[in-house]
Amino acid sequence: MKVVELTKLLDEFVESRFIHYLTIDIEGFEYGILRELIGNGQFAKAGIIICQIDAELHNPKFPNAHDSIKQLNPVRFILDFLDTPSPYIPIFNVPYLRHPHQKVSFVNIVNPECRRAFKIESYFDRK
User: Fold this and answer.
1) Distance CA 85, CA 95 (A)
2) 102: closest CA among 116, 90, 117?
3) Can you give the residue ranges of the Methyltransferase FkbM domain (predicted)?
4) 112: helix, coil or strand?
5) How far is 33 from 23, CA to CA, in rounded Å?
6) Distance from CA of residue 56 to its chain's centroid?
7) Distance CA 43, CA 88 (A)
8) What are the strands, taking DSSP E only, across the chain?
9) CA 59: distance to chain centroid?
10) Are residues 52 and 20 in contact, defined by beta-carbon separation less than 8 angstroms?
């Protein structure tokens, strides 16, 4: 299977580095993708903006977990993901399947277009 860089895919086929919604379930490799979207990550530096990300975060203790995530602490990952300069906050987190993997939804609360599209202010309205 041919692998295409995300930036190339977005530039050539989507013609934008702005994505309203992304869902990822890539058997443990989602941690690496998410890491690259924040701070000095490759995708953050390339100007890729995603408004909402729904990710299935695979359990590193799952028997078939890829070696690259077997030592990963999922709670520490989420805390680091929020601590590193990140435009994302998790708005939904639930165990999924019996392993348990986690279904997590992140929203971009920094980008003005994302804020408008997802009505971010409505979540913080104290009325």
Assistant:
1) 26
2) 90
3) 5-69
4) helix
5) 11
6) 9
7) 14
8) 18-24, 49-57, 88-96, 101-108
9) 16
10) yes
Q: Note every long-range contact of 58-62, with CB atoms under 8 Å and residues 24 or more positions apart, other chains counting.
A: 58/27, 58/28, 58/30, 58/99, 58/101, 59/99, 59/100, 59/101, 59/102, 60/28, 62/99, 62/101
Strand partners, 90: 106
- Structure token digits, residue 3: 């692998």
- In this structure, are residues 31 and 77 in contact, taking their beta carbons and an 8 Å threshold? yes
Give CA–CA dist 73/59, Å, rounded: 9
Q: Which residues, at least 6 apart from 66, have a Cβ–Cβ distance to it below 8 Å?
A: 27, 28, 29, 58
Residue type at 123?
A: Y
Q: What does the longest C-alpha to C-alpha distance in the chain come to?
A: 52
This prediction's pTM? 0.78
Condensed to tens digits (0 to 9), the pLDDT of residues 105-126 reads 889 999 999 998 888 777 776 6
